[in-house]
Amino acid sequence: MESNASFFLTWRDPDDRFLCRGERIGSGATKCVYRAFDRREGREVAWCRAALSGMEQGKHGSIVREVALMRTLDHPRIVRLVASWTDVRSEEIVFVTDLYGGSVDAYLRKHGKQCLSVVRKWARQLCEGLVYLHEELPSPVAHRDLKAANVFVNNYTGDIALGDLGFATVTSKYRSNASILGTAEFMAPEVLRGAYGHKADIYALGMTILQIATLKRPFGKFKNISELYFEVLNGARPEELELVKNRNLRALIEACICREET
Q1: Is 202 helix (H, G, I), strand (E, B) or coil?
Q2: Residues 118, 201: one domain?
Q3: Domain that holds residue 26
Q4: 249 CA to centre of own chain
Q5: Is 164 one of the annotated active-site residues of the chain?
Q6: Structure confidence by residue, pLDDT tens digits, 48-95
Q7: Residue 262 belongs to a domain
Q8: What is the spatial distance between Cα 78 and Cα 160, in angstroms, rounded to a whole number?
Q9: Is the whole-model pTM more than 0.70?
Q10: Calpha distance 169→225 (Å, rounded)
Q11: Which one of 13, 38, 105, 164 is the catalytic residue?
């Protein structure tokens, strides 16, 4: 993490297109995000820095995969990559994306419960993003970590886009990947058994809509991860579902998280 002194620094890209003055607007496990300016297009963008030195090998690979995947994507419901490069001197991967006002998670904490029309719009836009990843690419992609914290809001239009694709992977509609990745409250039962397919993204979609509608994380009563896993594997549904009063919205969430008995 950089100190506040980074605010007085000025960073430029190799082509002198982008100008970043070190105003940090966010951070995550593997990267810090700053406000920057695209001099070619005359607009603000997000400048993301991920230090390679000292980073665990798995996290290093996650950043490399995220940038490589973003280069292949082009859809209004997916955070768009504008440029990327490796800074050999500072041992960093730098990539520039469209600028958003923050995650849906942070947006909800700041602005509170949203009108049903907004919840419906965001649910529809999340579906559009997943349809693109699952159905419209030459090689289908599973996001594998869909949640409100990985969905970003355009402050000016109120539209949203899926981001944080570090766990995303090329997969198949019919074959599951053997891995356990994601965030506990949003993991489908099959993920906990070591298999991840597109249906697990749909499960996470339902849990994300539930969080947006209720302002509560699913399965919030469980403080112990082992207990949460046990309940999910045994078909438990989140108590927060009872807080969704709109029948159509509740039916959508239930359709996403329903797992048929086999």
Answers
A1: helix
A2: yes
A3: 4-98
A4: 22
A5: yes
A6: 999 877 666 556 677 888 899 999 999 999 999 999 999 888 889 999
A7: no
A8: 8
A9: yes
A10: 25
A11: 164
